[in-house]
Amino acid sequence: MQTKTTINGLNQQQMMDTIGAIQGNPGLANFVFRARNRWISGGENRSTIRDFYGAGAEDSSRTQDFVYTNGEPPVLLGSNEGANPVEYLLHALAGCVTTTFVLHAAARGIEIQELFTELDGDIDLNGLLGLDESVNPGYQQIRMRLHVKADCSEQELDDLLSYTQARSPVCNTVCRPIPVQVTRA
Amino acid sequence: MQTKTTINGLNQQQMMDTIGAIQGNPGLANFVFRARNRWISGGENRSTIRDFYGAGAEDSSRTQDFVYTNGEPPVLLGSNEGANPVEYLLHALAGCVTTTFVLHAAARGIEIQELFTELDGDIDLNGLLGLDESVNPGYQQIRMRLHVKADCSEQELDDLLSYTQARSPVCNTVCRPIPVQVTRA
After folding, report:
1. Between the N and C ends of chain B, which has fewer C-beta atoms within 10 Å?
2. ipTM for the assembly
């Protein structure tokens, strides 16, 4: 007899083991993620991402850095060296909601066949530029449309999406006020 | 006589023209940024970023998509296919604070010689996993340390950093509650 061991590309045994370990020792769920960034010129700068702390230890699984470049389009004084920071934020949000959705689908035994999302967000750059003190320099609103095919009912998908939105780390970093401490070293 | 036309890699004339145009027509500062993302498997998914609306028109400066891949480390059930979404959020924050700092330094006539940042953020994954309803699934706090060398006083750098934190779009998307509307298409 063969046991099915993955769902939505996730190893079910590893999922259950992880949940069990955290239920036995909730402190294992404390993670510290990190990034380092260096300015290049104008609106171009580059981050390296590699190490993090989690599951009670420093991670050593990554043998090289991830490297990502921020840029700006010409209308924002750049040369399209990369997506710009507010676009990267949409990428982070898309990825987090997607992964959270897929994870909790797996936990409910729902198999996802297809999943893609489209996001847009409104910004008034009068805030960034300091031209209007009444404008929030951040996104005013972000909209995310999710297209999904799965082996369950529409109601189950709606329930899963509500649960996902309440559980996604990036979604809850955006929709709640999170303290950002910026200091000079 | 030669006129100096760039500061911190930014074209001064273009900066002044942009500010002037927005002061004359504040609606030019309304931008809509976008991303599309497709799930691959497990914690792996990929975004494409290209078009946006701004300065009163659809942008057409980009001749190809930017493509970024989210992944997860083994301890979070992945294979390090890319940085994970909460790490990308740190990259977005680092880039935005850096670009905002450099822009307003230029506006003040401050030349930046070197600028790099280190970020870390705390997350309790009991929130993501739904194991503790009292835990915010998002970052609990993000810390950013900025190392800068510039041709001005320490006091001017401190003033510039405070101003930057209040003006950075990503920083203000994180530290304020921003509505995220997630719907099924």
Report:
1. N
2. 0.97
